[in-house]
Amino acid sequence: MTNDLPIRHLAFDIRHFPSLFLLPEIPAVDYPPAPAAPALGPPLRGVRGGELRVWQRLVLALAGAGLVGLLATAACLTPSSRGYGTHQGLGLPPCTILQTFGIRCPSCGMTTSWAHMTRGQVGQAVRANAGGALLAILAATVGPWILASGLAGRWLGGEPRESITILVGLAVVVTTLIDWSVRLSWGT
Known about the structure:
The chain is 53% helix and 0% strand. It is mostly helical. It has one domain. The chain is elongated and about 95 Å long.
């Protein structure tokens, strides 16, 4: 038996079966607009360019006052001649790591370093703890700046750059760890 139908009748034509290939029509959904993100604090006089919100002012003022307060406290302490232990003048206990393991911890000497820095004794401050000396310099520069910025309600002298902040923080940490490593290897 041979196929008597011409080839054109065997070809499939989409025009004869449109319902097989068309998707049903789905009505478009009209969603309401997303709500605006809530503000984290009431704006200051409409928050013009550069003005800080109330909560930002509070954080800056408290952080700045804290740093200035730490410097004032360090200025009232007599630096220990050992190069560490000045914090005991505040009624704090001796370093637990030093007492337990007989080695100084990375922060041993930081209070002594700050006490020396407030007196302008940079060499003695670095000998006590190099990272502490850097932190004291940062506190002396950043503390008054963020305190004044918080009180003024805007960044005085420009907003801090994130990259610089990270680099300075890393410099302090690396300096502290190098200083500690040298102390461990020299046995001081």
